[in-house]
Amino acid sequence: MTQTHTSHYERTDGRAIELTFAEPENVVRGGLVVLHEVGGITDGVRLLISSLAAEGWLAAAPHIDDTPTPDSVLAATDIALAWLVERGVQADLLGVVGFDLGGTAALLVAANRKLGAAVSVGGHRVAEKPGLVDIARELVSPWLGLYGDAGDELGAAEVEKLREAAAEARVATNVVRYPGANHRFDADPQAAVEAWQRTLSWFDAHLR
Question: Where's the Dienelactone hydrolase domain (predicted)?
């Protein structure tokens, strides 16, 4: 398993953040910002970072508060993207992936930053305006949404509204629902494997 590391990263303009990252052992295919779940950098987040690195992606997770604002999510993502660029990743090979709370964060980033690709695995509702459906209409990065019907906070009806809204965007989008999976995909191992393969395929298709 590829090891993860945590370091303090500070830009010349004074912006700084803690990053947990993993580097591929061989050729770097591109760079991915990983937006974590509630609870911060958990063992599950480290496993995801390591797994992405094993697939050839330089993966970095900025440490974000459990109650982030849209501005703080975008600011943290921008710093992580800058870190990836400093390590030689080209702009068209940058993407973002998030799950649980990070799934909503990834959708927000995909509507506000032009990246090569974005993936949301599960997500939380947004209390303030604009809501998730309105955000999805503004997507500027190719976006894949993966949602489990069993226990996902959004619910099947809201996910279908997300699908319809995302289809109005001028970028490639896809939304997939898994009837037996929850928002963490640990209730249905088969769905988890398929969701992982869909995630890798999305990045393969758009970051090239």
Answer: 21-206
Asked if 45 and 34 count as a contact pair (C-beta separation under 8 A), the reply is: yes
Q: Is 27 exposed, middle or buried (0-12, 13-18, 19+ CB in 10 A)?
A: exposed
Q: What is the pTM of this model?
A: 0.94
Structural domains in the chain, sorted by start = 5-206 (3.40.50.1820)
Which residue, among 168, 188, 164, has the nearest Cα to 178 in the 3D structure? Answer: 188
- Three-state DSSP string of 160-177: HHHHHHHCCCCCCEEEEE
Query: Contact, 24 vs 53, CB < 8 A?
Result: yes
